[in-house]
Every structure is written in C-alpha cells, then in structure tokens.
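in:
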C-alpha cells in the first residue's frame, strides 16, 4: 500500500508488493505529517501540523511565516529516524486562497527528498 498524494487515500500496489523504503518512505511520512491536523491522532497527540489553522487566517506575510514555522515543527521529528541534516521549508501562492508549502529534506548521504502540500487560506 502507498499513500497517493493526488487522491489523499491509500492505494494497493499488490498483495506481495514490498513496503516503501528510502526516499519514498520519507516523502510519504513528511506529507502525512503536514496533512494531518496536530492532535487528531489518538495514539500520538504530537503527530501532525497546525497548518489546518490557516483556513481561518488571512493570507498576510505574518501568517506565511507562521505556516513555515508550523511545517518545520511538524517535520522535525523525522530528523533522527531518517538521518536528516537539513529541513528546508518554503511557501508560495498557487492561486488566490491557497498556499503551497514545499519541504526539501536533505539526508546525511546527500540525497534530497521533496514533498509539497496545498493549504487553503481564508484570503
């Protein structure tokens, strides 16, 4: 099974398909941490991000800085298990009312994994 970022659902690759490892697993873990509202997971209250709060916020520079901080905070727990040297988070507007959060995760071996999430902003 893998998480499809286009449909926001799991898809079955096949009964005997091996689980994701490496860059694919890291990209999926990062995407799920950004997508999940913080505190909504019953087994881990720290899993997720506070990006869901942007739906009630205006698209102003202060909130963009706050969104970057929330995204970086959500991705920080991935640093140890995936041997991340650097987590680079950027934000840009795709269209009015939406903010595109991009994360670039640099592992110790120099490999770079990218993931992004489109978050709705109140406008």
């Amino acid at each position: 099974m893998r998480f499809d970022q286009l449909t926001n659902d799991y898809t079955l690759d096949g009964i005997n398909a091996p689980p994701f490892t490496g860059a694919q697993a890291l990209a999926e873990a990062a995407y799920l941490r950004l997508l999940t509202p913080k505190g909504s997971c019953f087994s881990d209250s720290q899993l997720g991000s506070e990006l869901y709060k942007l739906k009630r916020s205006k698209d102003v520079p202060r909130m963009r800085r706050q969104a970057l901080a929330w995204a970086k905070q959500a991705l920080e727990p991935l640093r140890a298990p995936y041997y991340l040297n650097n987590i680079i988070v950027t934000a840009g507007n795709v269209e009015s009312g939406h903010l595109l959060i991009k994360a670039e995760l640099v592992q110790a071996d120099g490999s770079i994994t990218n993931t992004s999430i489109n978050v709705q902003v109140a406008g």
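note: The first helix runs from residue 23 to 35.
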